[in-house]
Amino acid sequence: MKLSEDQLESVAAWFAGGASLDEIQKRLVAEYGVHVTYFDLRMIVAEFPQPEEAEEDARQRVPPEGGEADAQERVPPGGVKREGRAAARPKGTKRTRRSASPPV
Length: 104
Prior knowledge:
The chain is an all-alpha fold. Helices cover 48% and strands 0% of the residues.
């Protein structure tokens, strides 16, 4: 389905405002009398910058207070910095296999 420029601008504004695709469908019918399938609307919205991506891009442009070196050394939320699969086990421990039957 093709939407006019005015309709596309409205959809973009509603989407940027946090409206769900269902809400946008209802607004298109109420304001323009246009019925758009959910799939078609998803394809239209996919062309717009995503709200989460826009916020993430803005955060990436602003350097952290401590500089680039501190940004690389920061620990993620949860307090555990893991690199690779081996980091999940404490150093010095070996991987053990569990037997099918309990030890006697």
